[in-house]
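Schema walk-through. Below, the input block comes first and the output block second. Nothing else is stored per chain. Lengths vary across the set, and this one has 96 residues.
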Amino acid sequence: MAIYVMLTNLTDEGRKTIKENPERIKEVNKEVEAMGVRVLHQYVVMGPYDFVNIIEAPSNQAVAKVAVELGARGTLQTLTMAAITLDDFIGTLKKK
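--- output ---
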């Protein structure tokens, strides 16, 4: 399974939702996992993004589905990047 970094920003509606029901964040994580994508780590951050999510998925298509499904709700926007471990990256460079 591949690792991805998903950065998310809440919309005004998303901020309203989690203010009224902070546990909604964990409910969404369960919904993501039901789509076949595992949330490995999740952080609330200060800066240009609201959350950094480290996720594991079987394919780019699975991650794209999650991004579209979540974005279609109107409560957040996502930016997703594939991630490679440092050791895997170094190993790739050493292969001939």
